[in-house]
Amino acid sequence: MEEKKLDLNSIIGFGLIFLILVWVMYNSQQNQAKEQLEKAKQEQVQKQAQPKVEKLKVVAADTSKVVVSDSIQVAQLKSTLGAFAYSAALPSAKESFTTLENELVRLKIANKGGYIVEAEMKAFEQFKKGSGQKVQIIKEGNADFNIQLKTNDNRSLNTRDLYFEPVVTKEGANQVLTLRLKASPTQFLEYRYVLKPNEYMLDFAIRSNGLNTVLNTSNPLNLDWNLKSYRNEKSVSYENRYTELVFEYEGGKDDYLGQGESTSDEPVDVSYIAYKQHFFSAVLLTDTPFEKAVVVSENLVKDEEKDTIFTKQFKASVPLAFKNGEVNYNMNWYYGPSDYHILDEYDRNLDEIVPLGWGIFGWINKYIFIPTFDFLIRFFPFGIAIIVLTILVRIVMSPVTYKSYLSQAKMKVIRPEVNELNVKYAKDPMKKQQETMKLYNKAGVNPMAGCLPALMQIPVFYALFSFFPSAIDLRQKSFLWADDLSSFDSVLNLPFYIPFYGSHVSLFPILASIAIFFYMKMTTGDQMMSTPPQDGMPDMGKIMKIMIYLSPLMMLFFFNNFASGLSLYYFVSNTITIGIMLVIKNYIINDEKIHAKIQENKTKPKTMNRFQRKMQEMMEEAEKQKSLNKKK
User: If we measure between CA atoms, which residue out of 2, 182, 11 comes closest to residue 90?
Assistant: First the structure.
């Protein structure tokens, strides 16, 4: 019995010992798990605290090891790219981009090709104010910049297909992006971009280093720059009319390609090429002129009835000459507004990109209208500034208007006497002309006096016609019902298209047409009364009657798609002119006094000027010749 009792106690003891051991082991495992969990948490926190740059460096290093170690891929690249396989094997050989940005522009440059793939104007919107769409001169593959590389091993490569290695640095406040297409660590083709604060223009350089053993330097490199210009304005036809390719050549001369379906030129010694998109431009400038260039402009607006994405296709091809086996060109890019003030500040003849008119017309705009308008917009809204400018122009031109109207009044007073001479010498045109000239001389009347004042107004008319379409200050500025003074002021959209008119109705051209109708009604009637009929000449009276109705109709059709600021000017100008002529006619000029003055002039001895004497001698000689012919 005692042995059995002993065995039972032993079993119970061993059981207790086993339970104690199990409990100890369980607690030990729980503590170890807690420690591992805390350690994992600490490691996760440390990883999150490490800079992202370090992560990138690690990945880049790993990628470099993988790429370099892949001997098969390197061999394939070598067979295709030759020496430039080195660049394709670097970690930067991928679809990656670098952004340069200041207060005015945002530029996105690709590793592949090393050129700008996006150029955004941060202060300007497309189509209309509040659209939310920034103007982008370059986007979605509409531009291409390429240099063709001819190698010594007879390869032909294009930089647009090759990968550059980017390095971003800073020089003071300037952002610098250096892109290198490498054949080895010390052999490369380099693009260098430098963007300065508050500047639309950036420095750009192309240079090679050590490539004289890689490239065939017997011929220049060929650089191609192409761009399809995006539509940015409300009226595609109006925008396309002012979208053009401009270039400077031969040390300061400038020219442009016309508006045909496809136009081209081959200038020499080219210092800049500009792709102008009405109010925005992309310009490539070079300190070392290109020896020659081939420039092409193609019209992409085939149907003005439909909205289009692009307006024109621009192309330029220029040579980059080698010097001592290397290429070295210091250049500039300009991506920004076609603003006369901004372009003129660079002092590189870029103001010629803005079409202010040639000769005296451009001079009037540069030195009179632009400074005057700049002064006015400091104090008035843009629409009011146009009206004030118009009033100032009409006040300055009022003496010319007075001279013209006074001449017409004099001719009207002596017309009965002219008609008498026409009847008296109906069968002798030469004699009639002589007597008419004598009458004009005695009466102190110059038949050309009415034409000269009108001719003097033509430079002003044409200068303003060039000024308003080029004034970017008017872009997306509203006045009354016009939401954009640089575009048409549509008050009604038509469900159909009228040839030469459009699919909308603009109100300012209608008002301008009404004003020009009444103006011509007043002036043409007086001209018909004052202008005597001429033998062998068409009946000017009938022509003038037709013009009374034809001119307003032409104005209506021609200006429907033009800038509303220009139509506003002509409406106000013609209205003011009508008022000035009514004042002159009713309160200043008196027909009876003019008649008395003419009769007084007839009694005074008159001396002919050189022109009148010459005309008199010619007519007398013609009369003698006529008499001699009759005798024969």
Answer: 182
